[in-house]
Amino acid sequence: MNPRITMAVTGRVLSQLRRDHRTLAMLLVLPCLLMTLLWWMYNDSGPIFDRIGPALLAIFPFIVMFLVTSVTTLRERSSGTLERLLAMPMGKLDFLVGYAVAFGVVAALQSVLAVGVSVGLLGLEIVGHVWLLTLVAVVDATLGTALGLFVSAFARTEFQAVQFMPAIVVPQILLCGLLVPRDSMPDVLGAISDVLPLSYAVDAMTHLTVSSSAGEVWGDLVVVAAFVLAGLALGAATLRRRTA
Amino acid sequence: MMKSTVEVSGLTVVRGGRPVLTGLDLVIGKGVTGLLGPSGCGKSTLLRSIVGVQRVDSGTVSVLGEPAGSAPLRDRIGYVTQDSSVYLDLSVTENLRFFARVLGVGADEVDRAVEAVDLTSHRDALAGNLSGGQLSRVSLAVALLGKPDLLVLDEPTVGLDPVLRRDLWELFHRIADAGATVLVSSHVMDEAERCDRLLLMREGRIIADDTPAAIKAAAGADDIETAFLALVEASPA
């Protein structure tokens, strides 16, 4: 890896995003609007917003970053720019980490805004530290980026890439403990839930709503971070300098 | 100094179950070499093998004394594919600055490359708003960054204005005169006269390899297109 090349990729991805006002607006505003919608839905139903709000703060950045990343990297593969870069002195990890850092920056902004709106305006009750909540959201977004990078290798078109969302993302949302607590699921599903990264992200968020002790949150974060690294490593393995 | 830049031996490439190149042998030296043949004859596959981005079934390709595609070659080869291979949502200079940073060359190289392809007046335009010809020149400018020892250009002059096409061929010769090897593919036979050396290709085989004048003389033809036809008819099917 070469820091100059990695940062060149990050800088380029960020200037592309800066040009794309519509995508930028969607990335930054949409999670805030969705949290507001959720708050409104449960406005008359007691403390439900406080229970599921944090889980959704983990899920939104994950979904958005998964979609954005899988489509942009696929575009890079199909436009020929990836082939050109890999014929240059560009390491595979330079490319992937460059992307992950760029989208990590966007994810941090997105999470700060969504957490700010939820805690500041919508009165979401958090017992733990707010900064830790933001950190969990950023790591979740990076998880979405890493998985998005990985699946883009298995899609030939942007059309196919989008279809990976129901395949990879929706099962994780169903099994992460948002709908049914993870310990009340049938044993088999509980076991599956234990090996899905989003479960740990949501656990970390839920923990922050009920407790101010940070130990378990860090444990969950380490698991999610390990999945991020594994996703990047698998993504690097799917990048080929020589193709048919 | 080595005489040949590219040495291909016994190169076989199968794509989609169909052999595209079979046991190809070839040596390419300095100067401007044209690779001419009809669309689908294997030109791009051969160029991709030389750049080292093509999965090869057997045979060897060496470039500047190193195996094709190996790490020491990655900043010594400029490669232009038939796709534009630039970012349409960035300006001409933003594209070039990015690739210059990847290659580790300075900003002066960006200015030089933009001037070389005559895009100075469009340097701040978004690549996506350029015409097809302008876009292929942006791609060419990227390949010129850092003065590579080998330029591999896959149909760089397709769809260009004749004046511009002439200017680009002059540029290729200036680059070659400065000591680089330039390998240009084309399916337009009238570009043949502009090359120092010509490789005529058909159905994955090199059917002629000489100067344009020598190829015409050997076939007893006045132009390359007639010579190509004579060579095809003379060779066993």
Please describe the structure with a list of short key phrases separated by commas or semicolons.
heterodimer, A: 244 residues, mainly alpha, B: 237 residues, alpha/beta, Rossmann fold, 6-stranded mixed beta sheet, 4-stranded antiparallel beta sheet, 27% strand, globular, ATP-binding (chain B), P-loop_NTPase (chain B), ATP binding (chain B)
Please give the radius of gyration of chain B in angstroms. 18 Å
| Largest sheet, strands/sense/barrel of chain A | none
Order of helices and strands of chain A: HHHHHHHHHH
Instruction: Briefly note the structural class of the backbone of chain B.
Output: alpha/beta
Would you give an account of this structure?
The complex is a heterodimer of chains A (about 240) and B (about 240). Chain A has one domain. Chain A has helices spanning about 5-20, 20-40, 50-80, 80-85, 90-120, 130-150, 160-175, 185-195, 195-210, 215-240. With about 240 residues, chain A is mainly α. The two termini of chain A are about 25 Å apart. The longest helix of chain A has about 30 residues, at about 50-80. With about 240 residues, chain B is an alpha/beta fold. Chain B has two domains: about 5-75 and about 150-235, P-loop containing nucleotide triphosphate hydrolases (Rossmann fold); about 85-145, no CATH class. Helix content of chain B is about 35%, strand content about 25%. Chain B has seven helices and ten strands. Chain B has helices spanning about 45-50, 90-105, 105-115, 130-145, 160-175, 210-220, 225-235; strands at about 5-15, 20-30, 30-35, 60-65, 65, 75-80, 150-155, 180-185, 195-200, 205-210. Chain B has a six-stranded mixed β-sheet, sandwiched between helices. In chain B, strands 2-1-4-5 form a four-stranded antiparallel β-sheet, with helices on one face. In chain B, a hairpin with a 2-residue loop joins strand 4 and strand 5 (about 65). Chain B is globular. Chain B starts with a strand and ends with a helix. In chain B, about 45% of the residues are buried. The model of chain B has no long low-confidence stretch (mean pLDDT about 90). The chains are: A mainly alpha (about 240), B alpha/beta (about 240). The interface of A and B includes residues 15 and 88 of A.
